Fold this protein.
Amino acid sequence: MFWLCTLFHRSAVVDCFDLTSLSTAMALEAIRKLSPGNNQVLMLSVFDGSTISLGAAAIQQFGIELRSSIDLAHQKGYRVFGEWKPLEWKDVRNSPIGNSVLEFRSVNAFEHKPEYDFVSPLSPFVQKSLQDFADELLPVLKSLDVLDVNYRLPISPLFAAGAASRAAYIRDASIDPVDLIESLTLRRVDDPNNYLVNYLEWRISKSNEFLAEFLPRLSNGRGNQPTAFFADTLFATRPISERGASLNDWVTVIARLPKYSLCISFDGTTLGQEKVKQFAETLSALQLKPALWVISSEKSELLSQATIRRLEDLTSSLNILDVRK
């Protein structure tokens, strides 16, 4: 058994080298230059959205490069933590599929990567593309020591009115959600008497229907290798306007799919400590004990000992990855 599976009710602080901002070719070159690892982890991006719009040949080439990176990292003594952001696609806006799949452009959202767009998980094209991509690369994804599925959209009402969402809701409810969004202020959005609330709750429900089919295919294909779902630490306590935009309903995911682990990020700030505490309270209410991965940003202070002990009590294993660029 490798070390990730043996840490029950213990927290392991491990150096984690972040290569998620690099292409697979650049990541492979960076791994070649690394010294041999010793229970260290490489965080590696496992998705480049441009491969989908470029077709099957691009996906296959991406898989070859990704597998080479994983194999070389293992040869050098590293474990590989794969991060997959399935809703961030590269160079989509000007592709043939164009605006039919977009939610909004990623300007100042999550990361400053203007060449990336956020796509709608409610688009049939997006859903099939993600399923095909996962099926094609499943032998490669299985070789990852951990796979983190970072499934979320930015928390903004602008991300609740993509073409796919609008078309589907018009079919289901005979209402264009854009009319609802433009006619209400953000404060009034959270009024439960507004029709927009129904639309936002519908978005979450439809997204969860897709995840209920998609996520088991990933975890079952990976066998006993850990698969994690990235959790917005405050999702359960956010207003419906934010939850309906981001769609990161980890509470439902982990309740339906207890085989999944959870992954959260921590930036070392006082606010970050409070967010993790609130996350712990939500997790406690679920009465589940998933494995948990905490990605701690570079040079941040670690979680307080009290918070670590609390998370240990609520999880089957706790692993803290101290990221180094």
The chain is about 45% helix and 20% strand. The longest strand covers residues 11-18.
